[in-house]
Amino acid sequence: MNPSIDVQQLYSLSEAREPFFVLDVREYPEYAAGRIPGAYLIPYRELQRRRDEIPRDTPVYVVCQAGVRSRKAQRRLRRMGFAEVCNVEGGLRAWQAAGYGVKRDRCTPWPLERQERVAAGALVLISVLLGMFVAPPFA
Predict the structure, then answer these.
(1) What's the domain range around 119?
(2) CA 47, CA 45: separation in Å to the nearest integer?
(3) Do 84 and 130 belong together in one domain?
(4) pLDDT tens sequence across 6-15
(5) Both 26 and 43 in a single domain?
(6) Using CA atoms, how far apart are residues 134 and 138, in angstroms rounded to an integer?
(7) Which of 41, 45, 68, 121 is most buried as measured by Cβ atoms within 10 A of its Cβ?
């Protein structure tokens, strides 16, 4: 089996109704925001513990956002004894760029980056307000 596949080849497999397993190794917020239809979520950090959920008798196509984590997951799965593991080059970004549809959850949690920005903005706002109203000399 080839170590990698592009999204056009993966899409062709899905259209031909070939048996295969798409494994998404991103975190849940990323997965909920958009994924390849039919993809099964096991975050990269949980691969070892949840390896029994991955079929051994079907080709496994590993996908992430851009292809970096999926390449690492592919190597890790091969070390765990999975023979037919293939990396999806370009990940979900390439899938969307090719114009293929994605499935989304109705209620999507905010990505970690957005949570960090909101928290940082709140700290700045609180600091300014405290400086203006509680301790003006600190402003």
Answers:
(1) 109-139
(2) 6
(3) no
(4) 999 999 988 8
(5) yes
(6) 9
(7) 41
9-to-6, 59, 102 alpha-carbon distances in Å = 5, 13, 16
- Say yes or no: 89 and 115 in one domain: no
Averaged pLDDT score across all residues of the chain: 89
Which strand ranges, in their side-by-side order, compose the sheet holding 85-88? 4-5, 85-88, 60-63, 21-24, 40-41
Token digits of residue 136: 């003006």
pTM score: 0.77
Longest dimension (CA), the chain: 71
Helix (H, G, I), strand (E, B) or coil at 121: helix
Overall number of domains in the chain = 2
Do 73 and 127 lie in one domain? The reply is: no
Q: Which two tokens stand for residue 83?
A: 């023979």
- Residue 69: exposed, middle, or buried by beta-carbon count in 10 A (0-12, 13-18, 19+)? buried
- Give mean pLDDT, residues 92-121: 85
**Residues 95 and 57 occupy one common structural domain:** yes
Q: Are residues 77 and 136 in the same domain?
A: no
- Residues 61 and 89 sit within 8 Å (Cβ to Cβ): no
